[in-house]
Design goal:
Chain A has 481 residues and is of the alpha/beta class. Chain A is built from eleven helices and 24 strands. Chain A has one domain. Chain B contains eleven helices and 20 strands. The chains are: A alpha/beta (481), B alpha/beta (459), C alpha/beta (250).
């Protein structure tokens, strides 16, 4: 082992700092999944009939589906009957001020650094916090309401804005889109809903924090964002979970609808518990995220920093229907130890003059496997469309793997699609150059990796960018060799 | 047995038809065949039944559905049949100044009257695979070791049916100066299913250039399923050129497997100029340090033609390098596909592996599907792939026009330039010039015929 | 030879040229100068027929014909030559092949017999000497791997081969050292005669030391704001462009 190797492996000992567990009284229904469970969930949430129908339809279809096996992942068998599909903090989260929040819960959010408190007013971020699938607190609701912006838990939206929910739910991700989306559609317990009315530029970042707390539960939240004509919103999502020996399932769905000239920026810093150094525990993260650029000149951009989860299966996508619409995907995915990630994007060009960009930076360390998988499809009618994809992989040692699986399908002569991918080792000459200027190897690697990911990190809103940079550092500690 | 049954039911009638056909001609297949080849038939058939004729659901055949092609009625050729005409009279390779060791294959069988092979260096064997299997079975002890029947149904089907093809052996430190040229003819009175099995073995330090040309001698429907296994020993050097020039009613399925030992160098270059459906599987296994592999391909297709190139390069040992360049120009309603996989296995450090696939669509009805893949399990590597689908560079086009070259001509120049990157890799000069001309003709929309075709087919 | 009347040009919805008027007669050399972004290159490209430039108003007559109506190659064949500011690299197209095609297209348009490969090579060699072009450059693909200076030389070399009636040199001096500049200017001067004309588009005066203009125009904000004899170039060199900007209300 060289000195460099040593330093690198020592630093890997960094612990998962979000690995605490909060002792909050929680209502959990029995494990298992059947129609009765789905009826119970719907009932507990006091949902209208159309929601129950939506869930049952999804469930029936899910029963006929098989778990996808095409990803470059080794997924241990998942016992879908061994999971409880509903866990909620017992105290009814009907809160008028923060004082009424369960102190344990508040403590949880404080530990997470979630801006629920007054001081975070300054940060100007409106937050919806979801604990074990149930939305516990949404801030700034009133301020936003003044502009006609709806930002609330999904359950509230179902009660207060059933027409909007009904109109847009399942549009981007149909109930039976895939195995995990169907499961989510059947059992999702809560999530966030956001509607930006015509011509409104949302004055602050909207944010959701997801936290899995209870044992043996799955988290199945659902987010729906609708941006009406000429509106703009930037949305942030953060995720953490306690350390547990067993694996937990997370199967979320995010849907975005952008109407004429609307723009939605969706940023994720995903830091679910990745499991320990030996690959024990960790979240199985199967997420379906899709946006439809329905209106002309609309734009949806996905930015993600993925450092957590034992298994990540996630392909935030854009369906570019409106002429001149734009889709973007920017991703940094870090895998260490025994983590596995198969992530990327789909860009479906349907409208004319549509544009998409994919920038993916994979960083592999430990014994992990990190794959980019993406589809760029240009339909015959999508004249003059343009895609550029750049997928780079950085390998930090000789025990990990970095893989690239793009699919390119072009059906007309006026479009241009370009894909480039490179795989390389972290540059020894770069490290040496830093060393020679007095920078130690660990810092040098952190600098180089950050520089490598900069292009994507720059796309994150300020508050997140700083956090993401730190996260990158922690995730890679001791990983390089 | 029961599990086999359920698989049978899951697979379609087409696959069943081929399994049934095997049983009905089993006797013919085994009759007169060498033990080395017969030994693989049964397992090959079982592997075929398990996999079935590939549909789009098979990830490796996602962009080429073979079911309809296999559904046609064919006459199966499982025995050597005499050629109806003297091939030497029908065919005269008109590449000027191209002097080669020339051998014909007729419907997958090594032609009996191959009088133009000429004098080969001592120890070099160019013969019928069937002959060698009978007379010198030691030479084909590695038969079917590269072409794994459980990995691909076409290979399985070929192995179950295979009886003949060409066999080329180059002994240690022997250089074959003139290229070895193989002309694969298809000619039958009715639609025919043809199986061809080839075997090339280069001992340590052997050098040879091989040119393999596919031709049809009439307009009947053909399905040709060929498998070629190539072994390049240490420090061997092989150049393997394939020219596919058939017609719109042919289905040409080719699987080429190449095993490379240390310090060897293998270059493959495939030109698809004409064919109804062409699928080329090309799998390299680099199993020795400092081996080099170069894979080039180009296709120029129109009407409803389909070309699918599928490559896989396994970097199994450190310090190897591979480079792939595949180019397609697609006109009319033609469809193209490319899948290229680079797999650098654990500890294959200091690997350099590159791949590029560039495509030009000339119409809105042509489509291209590209699936480049990198699977990298070692860190000290330089790997990249790039794929583009687009048009001719407009800036360059304007530059040409601003020099007085009219648009059509400028476009043609650009397309020739696009292809030239591949063409220039042909080291046999007369062949390079000829292919350059053929490509130019093809790009002008003329049918490119590379020999005096006695049949003047319109298709 | 060339007459531009009230020419307005847009690129991607942005108006770049706002009413250009210019008359060029045979035997004349015109210099068009101006600060960056004034529209000099746009003018050069519009005259050569680049597609993304939209003429919204005005007319251009070249040798008595409507220039704007012609395809780029037609303009070239009729003797309009643009020396590109950034000559394009075309990998895979051999220089010789490119040049021979260009020369023969010109000849064909004039109803002359096309040159055979042998004749062309001979013809090319005489021209190569003129601009000090190295033989190895013509063995490469078009402009591929050429240095900045070599690319510019190559443009003048092509000009020598094609013998244009109206040559437009777009920033031909940029990126050239003094020796290369002299070679290029020498080439341009050698090709000059009473029947052809040259438009030199440049930011600096230094090229005009070697290619002496009859008229100097200052292009600013999409218009020709000043025209005079060669002395104007010296004045610009001395005072810079600021006084022009001031005179035009900035």
């Amino acid at each position: 082992m060289t000195d460099q190797d040593k330093i690198l492996s020592e630093v890997t000992q960094g612990d998962y700092k979000y690995g605490f567990f909060s002792d909050i009284e929680t209502e959990i229904i029995d494990r298992g999944l059947n129609e009765a469970v789905i009826r119970t969930i719907s009932e507990k949430k006091d949902e209208p009939d159309f929601m129950l129908e939506f869930r049952l339809d999804a469930f029936r279809r899910w029963q006929k589906m098989k778990m996808p096996d095409w990803a470059y992942l080794k997924i241990p068998p998942i016992d879908f009957q061994g999971i409880s599909y509903y866990a909620a903090p017992k105290k009814k989260p009907e809160l008028r001020s923060l004082d009424e929040v369960d102190p344990e819960l508040l403590e949880t959010f404080n530990k997470l650094g979630i801006p629920l408190e007054e001081q975070k007013h300054l940060a100007g971020v409106a937050v919806d916090a979801v604990l074990d699938s149930v939305s516990v607190k949404t801030t700034f609701k009133e301020v936003l309401a003044e502009q006609g912006i709806v930002f609330c838990s999904f359950s509230d939206a179902v009660r207060e804005h059933p027409d909007l929910v009904r109109k847009y739910l399942g549009q981007a991700v149909p109930v039976a889109d895939n195995f995990f989306a169907a499961l989510n559609s059947a059992v999702f317990s809560d999530g966030s809903f956001c509607y930006i009315p015509r011509g409104v530029r949302c004055p602050m970042e909207l944010s959701t924090y997801f936290r899995i707390n209870s044992a043996n539960t799955g988290q199945f939240e659902r987010t729906l964002i609708v941006a009406d004509d000429d509106s703009y919103v930037s949305y942030l999502e953060g995720c953490t979970a306690p350390m547990r020996d067993e694996n937990q399932l997370h199967a979320a769905v995010v849907e975005i609808i952008a109407l004429n000239r609307a723009e939605v920026k969706y940023s994720t810093v995903q830091n679910w518990y990745p499991g320990d150094k030996n690959g024990r525990g960790g979240i199985y993260n199967f997420v379906t995220k899709r946006g439809i650029c329905r209106g002309e000149s609309s734009k949806i951009s996905w930015t993600q920093v993925e450092t957590g989860s034992a298994i990540t299966w996630k392909y935030p996508s854009c369906i570019l229907i409106g002429n001149h619409s734009v889709g973007e995907f920017n991703s940094v995915a870090v895998t260490n130890n025994h983590q596995q990630a198969d992530t990327g994007s789909k860009m479906i060009h349907i409208g004319k003059n549509t544009k998409s960009t994919i920038v993916s930076k994979g960083i592999s360390a430990g014994k992990s496997n990190n794959s980019y998988r993406g589809l760029v499809k240009v339909m015959p009618g999508a004249e003059n469309s343009r895609n550029f994809s750049q997928c780079d992989s950085l390998l930090l040692n000789d025990t990990c793997g970095a893989h690239t699986f793009p699919y390119i399908e072009v059906g007309n002569k006026s479009s241009i699609v370009e894909h480039e991918a490179t795989t390389s080792k972290i540059g020894e000459d770069q490290i040496f150059y830093c060393n020679q200027r007095g920078i130690d190897t660990e810092k040098a690697i952190s600098m180089i990796v950050n520089g490598y990911a900069k292009e994507v990190l720059n796309k994150l809103p300020m508050e997140f960018a700083v956090e993401a940079q730190k996260l990158l550092q922690i995730s890679l500690e001791g990983s390089v060799g | 047995m029961e599990s086999n049954m359920s698989i049978l039911i899951e697979n379609t009638d087409v696959s069943l038809k081929y399994a049934a056909h095997y049983n009905s001609v089993k006797e013919v297949l085994f009759r007169n065949s060498a033990e080395e080849m017969n030994a693989h038939r049964k397992k090959a058939l079982q592997d075929f039944i398990t996999q079935g004729i590939p549909t789009r659901k098979n990830e490796n055949y996602k962009y080429t559905n073979l079911q309809p092609r296999f559904s046609s009625e064919f006459r199966y050729i499982h025995e050597r049949e005499p050629a109806e005409v003297d091939l030497h009279a029908v065919f005269r390779c008109d590449v000027p100044l191209l002097d080669t060791h020339l051998a014909f294959l007729f419907n997958g069988w090594f032609y009996e009257d191959n009088s133009k092979i000429g004098e080969l260096p001592s120890g070099v064997i160019l013969d019928s695979l069937e002959n060698v299997a009978h007379n010198n079975p030691g030479l084909i002890r590695k038969y079917a070791s590269l072409a794994q029947t459980e990995d691909d149904p076409l290979v399985a089907l070929n192995t179950a049916f295979a009886k003949d093809g060409y066999f080329l052996y180059v002994p240690e430190n022997t250089t074959v100066e003139l290229p070895v040229q193989l002309i694969n003819f298809l000619q039958a009175k009715e639609s025919a299913y043809v199986t061809q099995r080839n075997f090339i073995y280069l001992e340590e330090g052997a050098h040879v250039k091989v040119i393999s040309c596919d031709h049809t001698l009439n307009l009947n429907h053909y399905l040709n399923n060929s498998v070629t296994e190539i072994f390049a020993g240490p420090n061997a050097n092989l150049e393997y050129y394939t020219l596919q020039n058939q017609h719109n009613y042919t289905t040409s399925l080719n699987s080429v497997f190449i095993h490379q030992e240390k310090d060897s160098k293998v270059t493959t270059l495939n030109s698809s100029l004409h064919g109804g459906l062409i699928r080329n599987n090309l799998k390299f296994n680099m199993d020795g340090e400092n081996a080099e592999a170069f894979l080039y391909g180009m296709a120029f297709i129109d009407r409803k033609q389909h070309v699918d190139n599928f490559t896989q390069v396994i970097h199994g040992k450190p310090h190897c390098m591979s480079n792939q360049v595949y180019k397609n120009v697609l006109d009319d309603e033609s469809t193209g596909a490319f899948t290229g996989r680079i797999h650098v296995v654990r500890d294959a450090q200091k690997t350099n592996a590159f791949q590029r696939n560039n495509n030009i669509l000339l119409t809105d009805k042509a489509t291209m599907q590209s699936k480049p893949q990198l699977i990298i399990d070692a860190d000290d590597v330089k790997c990249s792939h790039g794929a583009t689908v687009g048009q001719i560079d407009e800036e360059a086009l304007f530059y040409l026009r601003a020099r007085g070259i009219d648009e059509a001509k400028a476009r043609l120049m650009m397309m020739n330039a696009f292809a030239y990157e591949v063409i220039q890799q042909i080291s046999i000069e007369p062949l390079r010039k000829r292919i350059n001309e053929l490509v130019d003709k093809r790009l002008r929309g003329e049918v490119a015929r590379c020999h005096d075709c006695a049949y003047n087919c319109e298709c | 030879m060339l007459s531009i009347k009230d020419l307005f040009v847009e690129v991607e919805g942005m108006e770049i040229l706002k009413g250009i008027n210019l008359v060029v007669k045979p035997g004349e050399i015109h210099a068009i100068m101006g600060p960056n972004g004034s529209g000099k290159s746009t003018l050069a490209n519009v005259l050569a027929g680049k597609e993304e430039y939209t003429v919204t108003h005005g007319e251009v007559t070249y040798l008595g014909e409507d220039l704007l109506d012609m395809a780029p190659e037609e303009r070239a064949q009729k003797g309009l030559f643009l020396s590109f500011q950034y000559p394009v690299e075309i990998p895979g197209v051999p220089m010789v092949n490119f040049l021979k095609t260009a020369v023969n297209e010109h000849r064909r348009s004039r109803g002359e017999k096309e040159l055979t490969a042998g004749e062309f090579l001979k013809f090319m060699r005489t021209k190569m000497e003129m601009v000090d072009m190295h033989a190895q450059l013509t063995n490469r693909s078009v402009n591929e791997g050429f240095s900045g200076g070599e690319k510019k030389k190559n443009e003048i070399f092509q000009m020598a081969l094609l013998e244009p009636r109206l040559a437009i040199l777009d920033e031909t001096d940029s990126g050239l050292d003094i020796d290369a500049l002299k070679t290029v200017a020498h080439g341009v001067n050698a090709l000059r005669n009473s029947g052809n004309a040259t438009i030199v588009v440049t930011h600096y005066q230094r090229l005009l030391d070697y290619i002496v203009p009859d008229h100097v125009h200052v292009l600013y904000g999409g218009k020709i704001v000043k025209s005079a004899g060669k002395e104007l170039a010296f004045e610009l060199e001395e005072k810079g462009y600021d006084w022009i900007k001031k005179e035009n209300g900035e």
